[in-house]
Every structure is written in C-alpha cells, then in structure tokens.
Amino acid sequence: MTRDEHAMLNFAVKWAPFGGGDEHILPEFGVHPAVFYRRLQSLVTLHTGVNDSVRRRLDELCRNKLDPSVRT
Questions:
Q1: What does the DSSP assignment read for 35-64?
Q2: Does residue 10 sit in helix, strand or coil?
Q3: Distance in angstroms (rounded) separating the CA atoms of residues 3 and 67
Q4: Cβ distance 11 to 21 under 8 Å?
Q5: pTM of the prediction?
Q6: What whole-number distance in Å separates Cα of residue 25 and Cα of residue 6?
Q7: Which helix (H) or strand (E) holds 25?
Q8: What are the pLDDT digits (tens) for 21-57?
Q9: CB of 60 within 8 A of CB of 72?
Q10: How far apart, in whole angstroms, are the C-alpha atoms of residue 4 and residue 8?
C-alpha cells in the first residue's frame, strides 16, 4: 500500500463516524469526494491487509456516498 493509500485509509477511518468529512477531502487530497470514495472503495476491496470490520464499514460508507439511494 502506498503512502497516499495509507493516508486515504486513515482519513476514512477517522472521519467515517462523522459522515465522511467530505468538506475536507478536496483540500486534503486534491480530488472531489466522489473520486475519493471510488478510490477508497477500490482500495478496501483490493488490499487484503485491511481489517475485515474496517473493510465492511468503509465499503458501506463508499456505497452510501456514491449512491445515496442504497441504504443497508
């Protein structure tokens, strides 16, 4: 996992309980929230080193952010 991927993962874990911290994504990562959540979803799906409970929580966050009509 790259340094940027670690930063994204740490950010997401920190902000997930508070709705994701969307207002901080553009200044922190230089991308719009939708891009961030697509990358994060790919990251938690592809990297086996991510804890299963963290993976599920962040995948759900990404799905909700990318398609608000999907509620689990």
A1: HHHHHHHHHHHH-TTS-HHHHHHHHHHHHH
A2: helix
A3: 28
A4: yes
A5: 0.89
A6: 14
A7: helix 22-29
A8: 999 999 999 999 999 999 999 999 988 888 899 999 9
A9: yes
A10: 6
Residue 5 has which token pair? 């991927």
- Whole-Å CA distances, 23 to 20, 37, 42: 9, 13, 21
Residue type, 27: P
Distance CA 25, CA 16 (A): 12
Q: How far is CA 51 from CA 6, 44, 47, 48, 54, in A?
A: 13, 9, 10, 8, 5
> What DSSP designation does 1 have?
-
Token pair of 18, please?
Answer: 């508070």
Distances (CA, A) of 13 to 20, 69: 9, 23
